[in-house]
Amino acid sequence: MNLNTVLLMAVFAAFGVLSLIALAEHGYVGLFLYQFQTTAGWQVLADLVVACLVGVIWMVGDARRNGRQAWPYILMTVALGSFGLLAYLLVGQFSGAKERHALA
Protein backbone atom coordinates (compact mmCIF):
# COMPACT_ATOMS: atom_id res chain seq x y z
CA MET A 1 0.00 0.00 0.00
CA ASN A 2 1.54 3.32 -1.07
CA LEU A 3 1.38 6.74 0.56
CA ASN A 4 -1.34 7.98 -1.82
CA THR A 5 -3.61 5.11 -0.82
CA VAL A 6 -3.01 5.69 2.89
CA LEU A 7 -3.72 9.43 2.53
CA LEU A 8 -6.90 8.80 0.52
CA MET A 9 -8.11 6.31 3.11
CA ALA A 10 -7.37 8.78 5.93
CA VAL A 11 -9.22 11.62 4.17
CA PHE A 12 -12.15 9.33 3.34
CA ALA A 13 -12.38 8.12 6.95
CA ALA A 14 -11.99 11.56 8.56
CA PHE A 15 -14.47 13.16 6.16
CA GLY A 16 -16.82 10.23 6.74
CA VAL A 17 -16.78 10.75 10.50
CA LEU A 18 -17.37 14.50 10.11
CA SER A 19 -20.21 13.85 7.67
CA LEU A 20 -21.85 11.28 9.94
CA ILE A 21 -21.77 13.71 12.86
CA ALA A 22 -23.32 16.47 10.74
CA LEU A 23 -25.88 14.03 9.34
CA ALA A 24 -26.83 12.85 12.84
CA GLU A 25 -27.25 16.42 14.06
CA HIS A 26 -29.01 17.95 11.05
CA GLY A 27 -30.25 15.16 8.75
CA TYR A 28 -29.59 14.92 5.00
CA VAL A 29 -31.97 17.74 4.04
CA GLY A 30 -30.76 19.81 6.98
CA LEU A 31 -27.25 19.81 5.55
CA PHE A 32 -28.58 21.72 2.54
CA LEU A 33 -31.10 23.89 4.36
CA TYR A 34 -28.35 25.23 6.59
CA GLN A 35 -26.41 26.38 3.54
CA PHE A 36 -29.41 28.27 2.13
CA GLN A 37 -29.68 30.55 5.17
CA THR A 38 -26.96 33.03 4.11
CA THR A 39 -25.18 34.14 0.97
CA ALA A 40 -22.00 32.69 2.47
CA GLY A 41 -23.74 29.31 2.60
CA TRP A 42 -24.89 29.70 -1.01
CA GLN A 43 -21.31 30.42 -2.01
CA VAL A 44 -20.01 27.32 -0.22
CA LEU A 45 -22.70 25.16 -1.84
CA ALA A 46 -21.98 26.65 -5.29
CA ASP A 47 -18.27 26.02 -4.77
CA LEU A 48 -18.99 22.38 -3.89
CA VAL A 49 -21.08 21.98 -7.04
CA VAL A 50 -18.35 23.53 -9.23
CA ALA A 51 -15.60 21.41 -7.62
CA CYS A 52 -17.63 18.21 -7.99
CA LEU A 53 -18.51 19.04 -11.61
CA VAL A 54 -14.84 19.58 -12.46
CA GLY A 55 -14.04 16.31 -10.67
CA VAL A 56 -16.73 14.41 -12.59
CA ILE A 57 -15.48 15.78 -15.93
CA TRP A 58 -11.96 14.64 -15.05
CA MET A 59 -13.26 11.29 -13.79
CA VAL A 60 -15.12 10.52 -17.04
CA GLY A 61 -11.96 11.13 -19.09
CA ASP A 62 -9.82 9.12 -16.69
CA ALA A 63 -12.31 6.24 -16.69
CA ARG A 64 -12.30 6.14 -20.51
CA ARG A 65 -8.50 6.14 -20.65
CA ASN A 66 -8.26 3.33 -18.07
CA GLY A 67 -11.20 1.15 -19.12
CA ARG A 68 -13.20 1.84 -15.96
CA GLN A 69 -16.88 2.60 -15.41
CA ALA A 70 -17.50 6.14 -14.16
CA TRP A 71 -21.30 6.10 -13.82
CA PRO A 72 -21.52 4.54 -10.32
CA TYR A 73 -19.15 7.20 -9.00
CA ILE A 74 -21.01 9.96 -10.86
CA LEU A 75 -24.25 8.88 -9.15
CA MET A 76 -22.43 8.72 -5.82
CA THR A 77 -21.01 12.22 -6.39
CA VAL A 78 -24.47 13.62 -7.18
CA ALA A 79 -25.93 12.06 -4.01
CA LEU A 80 -22.97 12.32 -1.62
CA GLY A 81 -20.67 15.02 -3.00
CA SER A 82 -16.95 14.41 -2.84
CA PHE A 83 -17.41 10.88 -1.46
CA GLY A 84 -18.01 9.75 -5.05
CA LEU A 85 -14.77 11.30 -6.23
CA LEU A 86 -12.82 9.94 -3.27
CA ALA A 87 -14.28 6.46 -3.81
CA TYR A 88 -13.27 6.56 -7.49
CA LEU A 89 -9.71 7.46 -6.52
CA LEU A 90 -9.55 4.78 -3.80
CA VAL A 91 -10.88 2.00 -6.02
CA GLY A 92 -8.43 3.08 -8.70
CA GLN A 93 -5.55 2.78 -6.25
CA PHE A 94 -6.51 -0.80 -5.40
CA SER A 95 -7.30 -1.90 -8.96
CA GLY A 96 -4.07 -0.25 -10.16
CA ALA A 97 -2.13 -2.19 -7.54
CA LYS A 98 -3.64 -5.47 -8.76
CA GLU A 99 -2.68 -4.64 -12.35
CA ARG A 100 0.89 -3.72 -11.33
CA HIS A 101 1.28 -7.03 -9.44
CA ALA A 102 -0.16 -9.00 -12.36
CA LEU A 103 2.42 -7.47 -14.72
CA ALA A 104 5.34 -8.21 -12.40
What descriptors fit this protein?
4 helices
Report the sheet-strand fraction.
under 5%
Rounded Rg: 16 Å
Number of strands: 0
Structural class estimated from helices and strands:
mainly alpha
Major sheet details:
none
Low-confidence runs: 100-104
Description of the molecule:
The protein has 104 residues and is mainly alpha-helical. The protein has one domain (3-103). Helix content is 89%, strand content 0%. It has 4 helices and no strands. α2 runs antiparallel to α3. The longest helix is centred in the N-terminal third of the chain and has 33 residues, at 3-35. It is globular and about 40 Å long. The two termini are 16 Å apart.
Task: Give a quick precis of the structure.
With 104 residues, the protein is mostly helical. Helix content is 89%, strand content 0%. It has 4 helices and no strands.
Secondary structure layout:
Elements: H1 3-35, H2 39-66, H3 71-80, H4 82-103
Helix pairs in contact: 1-4, 2-3, 3-4
